C-alpha cells in the first residue's frame, strides 16, 4: 500500500539520534537545529529518557483511564512545581491539535458560547475546530468552515473588544510567540489588555504553548514574561521529547463535569513515563537557563552576519530574518553542511528550534556554515 502523500520529503532517512545529532542510514551525521518541529526538548535518546520509557514498557505500557494511574499525578505535580503556576488542573491527551481542540471545547462548555477569536498568522493545528482558528485557508476543508471563528490582528485591542462585546465569544486563543507564522510576539500591554477584556466579557483566554512551552523560551511558559494568567494553557511537542503526549492546563475556577472530555490513549503509562523523564531532565540540567543564555550567544554571533536583518523569538525559539528568501539556504545547510533548520510563513525567516541542552559549539557550527554559504 502506498502512503498518503501529505508532505514534500527530504531525501534523508534518519535511523539513529543522539543528543543534538541524527544519523542517516549511510552513517552521515546531521546537526539537528530543528528538533523535528520543536519536539526534541532534551535531546535524542537521552539516557534518562530511554531508561524511564524502557523500564515502564517492561512493567506496564498501557491501561485505560478507568483505573487509577499515579504516574499522571506525578507528572501533574512535577509540571506544577517546575512551571511555578498554581491552581490549574491537567487533562492529558496525545498531540497539540488535540490539546487545543479540548481547550476550545472546555471554553465552550464553560461559557455556553460558540464563537472563537484567533489572530492573524496563527497556527493551532489541523483538526476540525483548531484548523478553523488557524490562519491558513488552504488547509481548511468545507467541513471545517462551519465553526464560528473570527480573525483579528495582534495589538488591535479595539477590534478585540468590538468582537467580545457581542457576547457570543467562548474563547480567545493565541500563541504567545507564533511558531509557524514566523515568530511574532505582541506586547505585554496587548496580552494584559486581552486578558482583562476576556475577564470583562466572560470569555476564556487560551494560551497555546504547544511550541513555545516547556522551557523553550527561557521561561517555563512564554506567557510568564507578560505577567498574565491564561484560563487555559495547551502543551504538547517538547512535553514528550518525541513520545506523543499533550496536555490542557485548566484554571480550577473552570469546573470539571463528567463527560466534558475523554480519551483512550491520553495520559497512558508510557506517555507519562516519557513526560516525567523530560521534566526531570529539564530540572536537573537547568535547561531554562541554558535556553536563555544561548539566545544571547546567538544574538552576538548573528550580529556578525550582515545578511541577517532581524533576530526574532526568545531562548531557543529563534527566527533569523534574512534580506532574501531562505529556501535555497536551508537546502544548502542541510545537504552541504548537514544541518537541519526550519522555515515559516515568512519566507525570509530561518527557524531554529534545537534541543534545549544544545551547546555554544553547536551554534558555532551553524554560523560557520552560514558564513560559507553566504560568501
Ligand atoms: C503553536 C502550535 N499549536 C498547535 C500545533 C499542532 O500540534 P500537533 O501537530 O501536535 O497537532 C502546532 C504544531 O506545529 C503548533 O506549532
UniProtKB/TrEMBL annotation:
User: Which cofactors does this protein require?
Assistant: pyridoxal 5'-phosphate
Q: Which UniProt keywords apply?
A: Aminotransferase, Pyridoxal phosphate, Transferase
* Protein name as catalogued: Acetylornithine aminotransferase
Q: Which SUPFAM superfamilies match?
A: PLP-dependent transferases
| Pfam families linked | Aminotran_3
> Per its UniProt record, what PROSITE patterns does this chain match?
AA_TRANSFER_CLASS_3
Q: Which PANTHER family match?
A: ACETYLORNITHINE AMINOTRANSFERASE, MITOCHONDRIAL (PTHR11986:SF79), AMINOTRANSFERASE CLASS III (PTHR11986)
Key word Thylakoid present: no
Q: Which organism is it from?
A: Salegentibacter salarius
Look up the domain of life of the source. Bacteria
One of the record's GO molecular function terms: identical protein binding
Amino acid at each position: 500500500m502506498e502512503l498518503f502523500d501529505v508532505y514534500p520529503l527530504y531525501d534523508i532517512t534518519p535511523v539513529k539520534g543522539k543528543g543534538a545529532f541524527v544519523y542517516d542510514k549511510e552513517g552521515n551525521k546531521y546537526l539537528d537545529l530543528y528538533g523535528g518541529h520543536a519536539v526534541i526538548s532534551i535531546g535524542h535518546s537521552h539516557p534518562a529518557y530511554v531508561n524511564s520509557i524502557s523500564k515502564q514498557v517492561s512493567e506496564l505500557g498501557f491501561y485505560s483511564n478507568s483505573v487509577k494511574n499515579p504516574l499522571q499525578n506525578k507528572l501533574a505535580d512535577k509540571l506544577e512545581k517546575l512551571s511555578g503556576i498554581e491552581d490549574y488542573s491537567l487533562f492529558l491527551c496525545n498531540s497539540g491539535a488535540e490539546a487545543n481542540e479540548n481547550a476550545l471545547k472546555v471554553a465552550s462548555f464553560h461559557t455556553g458560547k460558540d464563537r472563537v477569536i484567533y489572530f492573524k498568522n496563527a497556527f493551532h493545528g489541523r483538526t476540525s475546530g483548531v484548523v478553523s482558528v488557524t490562519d491558513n485557508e488552504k488547509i481548511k476543508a468545507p467541513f471545517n468552515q462551519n465553526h464560528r471563528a473570527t480573525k483579528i490582528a495582534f495589538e488591535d485591542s479595539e477590534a478585540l473588544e468590538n468582537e467580545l462585546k457581542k457576547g457570543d465569544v467562548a474563547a480567545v486563543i493565541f500563541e504567545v510567540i507564533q511558531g509557524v507564522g514566523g515568530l511574532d510576539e505582541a506586547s505585554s500591554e496587548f496580552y494584559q489588555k486581552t486578558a482583562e477584556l476576556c475577564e470583562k466579557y466572560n470569555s476564556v483566554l487560551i494560551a497555546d504553548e504547544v511550541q513555545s512551552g516547556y522551557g523553550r523560551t527561557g521561561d517555563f511558559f512564554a506567557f510568564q514574561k507578560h505577567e498574565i494568567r491564561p484560563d487555559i494553557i495547551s502543551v504538547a511537542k517538547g512535553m514528550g521529547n518525541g513520545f506523543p503526549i499533550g496536555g490542557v492546563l485548566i484554571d480550577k475556577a473552570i469546573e470539571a463535569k463528567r463527560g466534558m472530555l475523554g480519551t483512550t490513549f491520553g495520559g497512558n503509562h508510557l506517555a507519562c513515563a516519557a513526560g516525567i523523564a523530560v521534566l526531570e531532565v529539564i530540572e536537573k540540567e537547568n535547561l531554562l537557563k541554558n535556553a536563555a543564555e544561548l539566545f544571547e550567544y546567538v544574538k552576538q554571533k548573528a550580529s556578525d552576519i550582515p545578511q541577517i536583518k532581524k533576530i526574532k523569538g526568545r531562548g531557543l525559539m529563534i527566527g533569523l530574518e534574512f534580506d532574501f528568501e531562505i529556501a535555497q539556504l536551508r537546502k544548502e545547510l542541510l545537504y552541504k553542511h548537514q544541518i537541519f533548520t526550519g522555515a515559516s510563513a515568512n519566507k525570509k525567516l530561518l527557524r531554529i528550534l534545537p534541543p534545549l541542552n544544545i551547546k555554544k559549539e553547536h551554534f558555532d557550527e551553524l554560523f560557520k556554515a552560514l558564513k560559507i554559504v553566504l560568501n
